[in-house]
Amino acid sequence: MRFDYDTSYADAQRLLRHWPGRIAYAALAALLLAGPLVLPKFFIGEAAATFIACIMALGLMVLTGFTGQVSLGHAAFVAIGAYAEIGLLDAGLPFPLALPVAGAIAGLAGLLIGLPAIRVSGLYLAMVTLAFALVVEQAVGRWKSVTGGYDGAQVPDARLFGANIGGLVPFYYVCLAVLVLALLALINLTRGYVGRAFVGIRDSEAAAHALGIWVSGYKVLAFGISAAITGLGGALLAHQVQYVTPDVFSLNLSMQLVLMVVVGGLGSLRGAVLGAVLIGLLPTAISRLKALLPAVAAAQFGLETFIFGLVLAGFVLFEPSGLNGRWIKLRSFFEAFPLYRRRTFVRGKAYASSERHR
Amino acid sequence: MSLLQLDGVSLRVGGLTAVREVSVAVPQGEIFAIIGPNGAGKTSLFNIITRVFAPSAGRVLVAGQDITAVPRHHVVRHGIARTFQNIELFDAATVLQNLLLGRHRFPHGGFTAQFAWTPAVRRAEIASRAAVERTIDRLELSAYRNAPVGGLPYGVRKVVELGRALATEPRLLLLDEPASGLNPEETRDLAFWIEDIRAELGITVVMVEHDMSLVSAVADRVMCMSMGEVLATGTAAEVQADPAVIAAYLGT
Question: Which of A207, B122, B184, B206 has the fewest beta carbons under 10 Å from its own?
Fold first, then answer.
């Protein structure tokens, strides 16, 4: 077992407090930085796509994992981020400026949809966001003058100081850098008062009100921040696919994002990243697996959807705390080795509060 | 001037009058208890003071300021903190995080600075932590500091909720059945804490409580309600001897 002996309150704020963690993250950083030098081309592209998925999942995690507001329509913010990026680049904005502005535009859209959406919660909120996603999907399909409609729109090259950074290897590093920055910003946000307020609203609105948290304000704020981060991912996605059509932002993408945060473990940023990596790489893994399957099974239509469903059902049944929960258990298994007890993570009797006044 | 003053407060919900023209003044530094049978309107009165419900008539004054129409999340700025009858904690968070949420109304170094965790944010967080640790020491919660609240025993959860209310540095503390579900030992601890809170922090306490041993031990004055109306106000002994109170509890 490891105990933290803090000698000042500043100690408790440090992010990487222990050498094993520091070494592990340094190794991970080295691996990610050296990746493009050794990986085959296909996997460099896959890795960049995974980083983008991580960014989008992080955005949804703020909303669903921290404030407990379900969104089945986050593909809409991906779309807004992507088309904003195209529009801004077409208007002549340089790439380093267009990217954050595209995120901000998506965030603004999030604030706007958040204003009506916070009046409902639970299933009804899911329906509202779903409807919003359908509206956006139709709108980008028909608003030809802006989005190019179903014919699609060409994404201008991403240029940094005159050099094209849309190539496979430079773009890998761009995605990695944006992911790291987004992750750090969200880590800071969630460990401060805003993150605590988000969690407070999720766990008890009545208490949140009484402590001076402006519940509806923070709910809208969560929508805005969530949409901004997801939109940032959308802007990068536009560069990744290079030619954007409305079917990129279908309901399927929204569902995949929900799958990522649920499988990763709600309420944890690490979960969003782990979930995005698993779900993002699953299609590739499935297609590789197909080669090993008998021809009858491999040719079946809907094999991919079936496996996605299987993964979700498996996690909901056997590991509701997601990959992050599994990670924490694994870590404490090694920290406490050989004294780990499975009962450690069996939660005691929970005292449910009844008669909530919202 | 009294710290809390209710002027003819009524609450009608449909055809039911939950609270009927309650007027009461609680001076600074008093421990004031509200007793009464179930459904008497005690918790409704708390919910009116903390703006969960808007009263149908009457005014709520805190230190002379009318708070009848302030937004619900501004109530804490007037120095009012409360606990809930059925514990309302943030179950997934630790004891420390629950108490830190009590510091929400204090400066925290700016919103945009949060993303970058600037020195100003760091200082504000350390100040919050230091303030919260004082409450942890006072209520002897240090053993549970980093434990998630959801798994703690009932008695400890009650104390955490009291601590969270104290972390807001209130002038007026509203305790809704603080001793319900506590064993006699825990109830005795609570009685000492309530007296300490008044004596050392100068906080006025208004509590709804059924446990008459606690009420008699700590309350300066007791108000008995029934069916939304005030039956009697006075010392614990006076109220207990009042014929209307006895009738309300035992029937006529």
Answer: B184
Are residues B178 and B252 located together in one domain of the fold?
Answer: yes
Q: What is the CATH number of the domain that holds B217?
A: 3.40.50.300
Rounded CA-CA distance B99/B165 in Å is: 8
| pTM of the shown model | 0.90
Question: What is the least distance, in Å, from the CA of B81 to any CA of chain A?
Answer: 7
Interface check B84 vs A, CB under 8 A: yes
C-alpha–C-alpha distance, residues A283 and A304, integer Å: 7
Q: Do A189 and B114 touch (CB under 8 A)?
A: yes
Domain region containing B139: 90-168
When CB atoms are compared, the residue of B47, B93, B105 closest to A357 is: B47
Asked if the peptide bond before residue A283 counts as cis, ω within 30 degrees of 0, the response is: no
Of A64, A77, A74, A80, give the one whose Cα is nearest residue A222: A64
ipTM > 0.85 (yes/no): yes
Position of tokens 């709910």?
A219
Mean pLDDT by 10 residues, chain A (358 residues): 75 83 92 90 91 96 93 93 92 90 95 89 89 90 80 80 81 94 95 94 92 94 96 94 88 92 92 93 85 77 83 88 88 79 62 44
Task: Among B84, B136, B160, pick the best mutation site for testing chain A contact (most A Cβ within 10 A).
Answer: B84
Determine, yes or no, domain membership for B134. yes
Q: How far apart are CA B118 and CA B126, in angstroms?
A: 12
Contacts of residue B107 in chain A, CB cutoff 8 Å? none
Q: Single out the residue in B104, B138, B168 at which a domain terminates.
A: B168
Specify the 3-state DSSP secondary structure of B25: strand
Cβ proximity of A326 and A275 under 8 Å: no
Rounded to whole angstroms, the Cα distance separating B32 from B29 reads 9
Measured in degrees and rounded to the nearest 5, phi and psi for residue B32 equal -120, 125
Q: What is the CA radius of gyration of chain B?
A: 19
Q: Is B115 on the interface with A (CB under 8 A)?
A: yes
Q: Which residue of B has its CA nearest to A206?
A: B88
Strands (E), chain B: 2-13, 16-27, 31-35, 57-62, 65-66, 80-82, 172-176, 204-208, 221-226, 229-234
pLDDT in tens, A263-309: 999 989 999 999 999 998 888 888 888 888 887 777 777 788 888 88
